[in-house]
Write a structure and sequence with these properties.
Two copies of one chain form a homodimer. By secondary structure, chain A is an alpha/beta fold. The first copy, chain A, has three domains: 44 residues, no CATH class; 105 residues, Response regulator (Rossmann fold, 3-Layer(aba) Sandwich); 141 residues, Rossmann fold, CATH 3.40.50.2300. Helix content of chain A is 44%, strand content 16%. Chain A has 13 helices and twelve strands. Chain A has a six-stranded parallel sheet. In chain A, strands 7-6-8-9-10-12 form a six-stranded mixed sheet, sandwiched between helices. Chain A is elongated, with a radius of gyration of 25 Å. The interface between A and B is large, with 37 and 37 residues. Chain A binds a DNA duplex (30 and 30 nucleotides) through helix 2 and helix 4.
Chain lengths: 333, 333
DNA sequence: AACAAATATACAAACGTTTGTATTATTCTC
DNA sequence: GAGAATAATACAAACGTTTGTATATTTGTT
């Protein structure tokens, strides 16, 4: 590996001059800089980032911790964050926790050992509070939380418009004439699911219906749970569901198909997250879309600008067949 | 930040002893080691990986370069690689090229500057050969290529069973009684698409059909191209397509629906990659499934074991509705 | 008890940068 | 052309580890 010292001795100058030349410092003469650049190119020099970071006492790595990397939602968040961070000269180290608390602790430790420039995290389902995060990253490391956030932690937060979104989705089901609307509500340890549930509740109550605990299905976010809870919902006389996730909505649809219950004429359903399969299935699944790419960008910008406020990213109700009882919309992709 | 020197002075020993104690070296007395561990824990010490790596002249980061992170196929490869690498004490730095040659060069440079332990790459579509890879990473950096590989580069290669897979898929369409089978063939700059095309060709010729260039559609791997080429295929009298990708197959299906051509009775289609939407759409799309998770694991193991051979991962034909003309299979998920 | 062998720790250099300070070379002013 | 001001470069320490060698301590042998 060729170092700045190699370049320095090749040119008969000192490493410090080479370092400054490569950094474009005005303290080195233009012709010297040119000579250094030329020699660096010729010798195939590439700066050792570790050494550089060590000396500078900082890193150009931003650590991103997500529950699952193969969820489109998170993959797109990472993509958005990456685009902004790369442009600002940062690299992204991705850790996935697979929804495990233990993995999350391990990931945070690793990132801390790298002395990363910042940590961006969406916590795992198993994490009930942010104590471990606070404890591991300390006071000085910039922290940005996105999507799943612990409100009591310091630092910026980028969240979806969960309350309003769930309100809109539920309201829409009501307007379509569905009479008994349940919800697949997700994990109550996560603020965002609590908010969605509140939005659902408000919509129900605002339209004079009764909020009925017996058709609120908790912890329902994966496919199997969706099927299971849908069966209970059918038995409880529901004719619609607002699901706080797309995968549970998918399970519900398969369960409905199994029972020969037509969607959307006899049963309506709206999911959340706008995973790409929602548009492709039959019937296509209406979904409360997030904007993950923008969310990732916002998280990155919050770090770059040193902000510590909470930013709310709008959610958009994407209407497809699964909730189109009155057949009054053109189905979009 | 607390360093080994802090621990050392707190205990009245030298940093070297602390370093050895923490590394579990037999050169330090058991009680000293215990004291050091205790003090490290008490002071909240975490090793500075940058300094460690710099001194040791090596890194515990493995760089993974993929075209797109939000493709399930690649996300699962990353997941597989990560599981093996994490267990071996490595961390994974992910770069996505978005199919751009320029980004690929930049990513490789970055990883080289980090002096990563190894580079695992699936090259972008724009990369026509591996010269830039060879040039940037030099002789000494371990290289593992997966899925999209340049055969002339040194190092391990993990590839799908492309020829056999495409052969199987095409053969199956023939056995279902389709008479004029075209192919959405992908990019001929990629070896894997050339191999799939060869498999298709062999299957066609083996069954006494004529290999017809006019129904081989190149560069067809994204949705829009799939639609476009499918239209041409219809005009050319095709009644089936083997698509080297799932997204192009999806486009084709939408085009067929638009023309009211029933699938699978009047037109059969099989895609490749087993993206999860294939099982969810209607009609569900038969697909030549890869095993990306296993592929990622294999790539990681090839690096860990220092292998430089080529490993072939089987492909599995997943039969669903889109090719089920004779209605002779139970549709699986 | 004296010496060798072993064990345990200390010393110091090194990894490749960056950067504050010191030194030398150049330009300007009168 | 002497002195001041400025520009350009050199020197050296530092970032936090690791590790080869040297030193000090303990143990074992006769």
């Amino acid at each position: 590996m060729v170092t700045i010292s190699d370049i320095a001795s090749a040119l008969g100058v000192t490493p410090s001059t080479v370092s400054r030349a490569l950094a474009g410092s005005p303290r080195v003469k233009a012709e010297t800089r040119a000579a250094v650049d030329e020699m660096a190119r010729k010798m195939g020099y590439e700066r050792n980032i570790m050494a550089s970071n060590l000396r500078k006492g900082r890193s150009d790595i931003v650590g991103v911790v997500v529950p699952l990397i193969n969820r489109e939602f998170f993959a797109n968040i990472i993509g958005g964050a990456e685009s902004v961070l790369n442009a600002a000269g940062y690299n992204v180290l991705i850790c996935q926790t697979k929804e495990s608390f233990e993995s999350e602790v391990k990931a945070l430790r690793t990132l801390r050992n790298y002395h990363v420039a910042a940590i961006m995290i969406s916590h795992s389902i198993e994490s009930e509070n942010g104590d471990h995060i606070r404890e591991i990253i300390g006071e000085r490391m910039p922290l940005v939380q996105f999507d799943r956030v612990f409100p009591d932690l310091p630092g910026a937060k980028i969240v979806g418009e969960n309350f309003e979104g769930a309100y809109k989705a539920t309201k829409y089901l009501i307007e379509q004439g569905y009479k008994r609307i349940g919800t697949l509500a997700g994990y109550m340890t996560c603020l965002l699911y609590r908010e969605r549930l509140e939005g659902y509740r408000k919509a129900i109550e605002d339209s004079g219906m009764e909020y009925d605990e017996s058709i609120v299905f908790h912890d329902t976010i994966v496919y199997d749970k969706g099927r299971e809870s849908c069966l209970k919902a059918i038995d409880a006389g529901c004719d619609a569901l607002y699901s706080a996730g797309d995968f549970s909505a998918l399970g519900a649809i398969d369960e409905l198909k199994l029972h020969g219950i037509d969607i959307p004429s006899r049963f309506g359903i709206i999911g959340t997250a706008n995973e790409s399969f929602t548009a492709l299935m039959t019937p296509s699944l209406s979904s409360l879309g997030q904007h993950p790419y923008e969310m990732g960008q916002a998280a990155a910008r919050a770090f770059l600008e040193g902000r510590t406020d909470t930013e709310v990213i709008p959610m958009e109700l994407l209407l497809r067949q699964s909730s189109n009882r009155n057949n009054d919309i053109q189905c979009q992709k």
